[in-house]
Amino acid sequence: MRSRGRVLAQAYAFSSSYRTEEDDPLMVDYMDYSTQLSCGYEAFEVRNAAQGFGVDAFRAAMEHMLDLAQYIADLIEAAPDLELMAPVSLTAVCFRIRGATEAAHTAVLAALIEEGTALLGPARLDGRHGIRARVTNHRTTRDDIELILTRLSDIARHHREPVGGDMGDAMEVAL
């Protein structure tokens, strides 16, 4: 068995700069003795969920999230202080606050997180700064989307301060 173990380790062993098991002789990486342990069950979990809930439930949840992403895009296009940065084809929506600096976008994102309204991320497309929203929870509703965009616009207006006199819709964080 000991020689067979070495053969298995040679067949399955994986080395990487971030893994330190091989530096410690007392550590045994059991993955070296069989196929990968962590990913084999992913398909099993998906299969069980599809069997339990049905494929139609998954399809409906995905369609709901895609519809909400398009709803976000529609609301952004209708908002005078927001603009889409790219067409929406999946659940990610990249947009920006018109005339906002990177600092203003960052301040708005931080405020949304701090108050617990939403966790949106920064975006950068073609050198322009913006915000990225992704619909990833099947329980998200249109009311949730409206709340987030309303709060985002309110916070952005709070941070709006003309730079160097009247420069239209230029924004700078007023801290």
UniProtKB/TrEMBL annotation:
The keyword Lyase is annotated on this UniProt entry: yes
Gene3D superfamilies from the UniProt entry: 3.90.1150.170
Superkingdom of this protein's organism: Bacteria
Cofactor requirements of the protein: pyridoxal 5'-phosphate
Entry keyword annotation includes Lyase: yes
Any Pfam family: Pyridoxal_deC
Keywords of the record: Decarboxylase, Lyase, Pyridoxal phosphate
Protein name listed in UniProt: Amino acid decarboxylase
